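tool_call: predict_structure(chain=1)
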Amino acid sequence: MSLFSALSVSASGMSAQRTRAELLVENLANAETTRTPEGGPYRRKDAVFESSGVASPFASVLFQQSEGSLDEASANGVTVAQIVTDTRDPERRYLPGHPDADAEGYVAFPRMNPAEDMVDLMSASRGYEANVAAIGAVKDMIQRSIDLLR
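tool_result:
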């Protein structure tokens, strides 16, 4: 794998972690939302990652073989395969004065744990930071290579 492919792998990881963080922030913001345009309470969302091939934008210049394939240039990165919405029944709380209460006085709330989502958000943030550090290390290696060639 070339240094440029390593940059592409880290960039794909940053993009995937950003999407995950956006979903977690949306979950936290809607932890008490009892009414949505679709009807009913908010449903928790989560990102599902999968491995995918990532090609460097410099691949065609640096590693193109005579047949036109890019064996050396492709590397495995990560993408968001799908966004999964929680299908479990909502949590019911007895709040008879609430405007969304049913005939028995129960209100449907999203089934989520804000503490768990905060821990997941910290994990996404650290994953993003790790990819930023990897890009920084690759950038330093490229700079040192250029310095050696002077």
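agent: The first helix runs from residue 3 to 29. Proceeding to next step.
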